[in-house]
Amino acid sequence: MNAISVAKRDLLDVRRAKLIWVPVALYVLFMLLFYWGQSNSMNPSFYRIMLSLATIGGVLLIPLVALVAAYLSVAGERESGSVRYQLSLPVSRTDVVLGKLLSRVSVVSGALLASFAIGLVAAWTLVPEMSVEYGDYAVFVALTLLYALAYVSIAVAISAATASRSRAMGGAIGFFFVFNIIWNFLPIGPEYMARFVFEELGLSYADSHLEFIFSLSPTGAYLNGLGLAFPAEQFPGLVGSGFDVFYLQEWFMLVILVAWVVVPLGLGIWRFRRADLG
Amino acid sequence: MGDAPAAPSRIGLVFTTDVVGVPSSFSDRHGPQYYKRRVRHLTPICRQQHNVIHSESFRKSYKIFAEWSTVPAIETTALTKRYGETVLAVDGLDLTVGEGEIFGFLGPNGAGKSTTINMLLDFVRPSSGTATVLGYDAQTETEAIRERIGVLPEGATLYERLTAREHVEWVAETKRADTDVDAVLERVGILEDADRPTGGFSKGMRQRLGLGMALVGEPELLILDEPSSGLDPTGIQDMRNLLRAEADSGTAVFFSSHILSEVEAVCDRVGIMNEGELVALDSIDGLRDEATGGATIELEFEAEPSVDLEMPALDAIDGVQQTTVEDGVVTAVCADPSVKIDVARALDQRTTVTDIHSTDTSLEELFNQYTGGTAHAGSRDSTGSTGESDTRKQEVTA
């Protein structure tokens, strides 16, 4: 209840911040570019557009939108001292963090939903001959929102655990590099490290183990969860993990994403509750 | 060190005044209006007994009243905050502020005032000791406290993209208070800027808005950290009037300041902090009584006193506490005004005295004595008080 009063005030405040809207505009721009690209193609495919959105958008833009929208949420107030006005009122520190999450999630999901709606309009106007897969598009939008929610939660948690603007920014950028770029895209990620260690120690391992490590980051889980929105047989190797074990099924990717919402937030609240705000 | 606070006995006095009609020096400030507010806080049974107060249940109701009234607005017991191994920000603070009292919390910057306030508000956790606010534990019952108090935090910024009106609305909504937002803004004098974002506000306007936000929801206690900072003289006067009006309606006010003159005009009692310790706790009158004991004489002389006119000669005079020489002026602090003439005579024998200024020790000097006198090397903050520099000067000249 008190978290809602925090969220309402924060929403009023943050939607007037121009910086928040820059990555969203970028997202819309890229999306329009993909539709325009398909409009020049001989046989335009809606899935191609969704795949571009999932990769470029999922890997770069969604984390950017979410981190920019939320990395200052608590730390910025702590640095400026306005958190002391907030905490002079009958709200708990947990309320503050949850309220911030609520408000930033609604900003981010509102913006993304608007972008996806613009995408539909672009589909109808730029590539009218293309058939839009509404059902799969809805699943894709829902999955992407969950992914964004995980990143917002992580950013709020980092913000709650840090005392200043610069540390929060460092934490957010650091997280992005370690758990996105390095984890999933560079050949020095934990997947490769694990293989190296297994081989050095002469342990047996299966590829599914490595794939599971890949899936443990939010981005890995999102990419391996895309099979929910795509006909996997049309995109072999690109969508879905291709393994039968339960921990690589799409539903388990959802579990991982939900864990990325809950666990960092819990840690962030725990840290913030113990912090000295003098 | 002053005595334990007089809150319960004072409320007893108010009680007597109102019911039995004994005139009281508190009647100006704590007249019927004050009493009415107090009665509002009583439990129904108390109020009932209050109505039949002259009956035989008088004793019993008085007892209930007294018990109720012993819940202090603020109470700290051995409250201590350490930062790391070396810095002791607040050292074993024992302090009680009664209900309906205006308490001035004084001290130079870095004396531990804000740390104490931050502990009362649960922004900072004490290393040891306890604090209660309105009878609630400051660490475990924070929401109960925050529902009942109004706070002006120190150096906190407002939300610069929100307007003044939105700020007050937000506070009222969070406190679930039925507040006339315009009236609040009017009261602190920023109604005409109500719909501007606070990012463009001057420091004084921000402070006024902060004060207005603290007043929302009829708090039982106002905790104001350096409320006058950034205010111009008019603003400070307005603030004083506001605090008095709040106190008249029964609100306890606890505010910190590093300027004594600000505090003496409004406070019932003051506590002076220095280096994390409470070095004085008394009413302004009590402090003044103490202050009139001392006296200072300043003597201008023609030429620099030669070597044999060193200060120890003046220091040797009975009753002289401290002497300094600077720019052809000798300043001597005397324990008793009658000693001043001895100083003048002694100096006149050695050199030609051209002018004499004589002053009684002001509260300001007393404050400096309290806060500068205990300063020592390696302190966390330079107190910058004249008391300290006086001591240093003396060491150089002596």
TrEMBL record, chain A:
Regions crossing the membrane: 20-37, 49-74, 101-125, 137-161, 168-186, 251-270
Superkingdom, taxonomy of origin: Archaea
GO molecular function: ABC-type transporter activity
Cellular component terms per the entry's GO annotation: plasma membrane
Keyword annotations of the record: Membrane, Transmembrane, Transmembrane helix
Keyword Iron among UniProt keywords: no
Protein name per its UniProtKB record: ABC transporter
Lineage: Archaea, Methanobacteriati, Methanobacteriota, Stenosarchaea group, Halobacteria
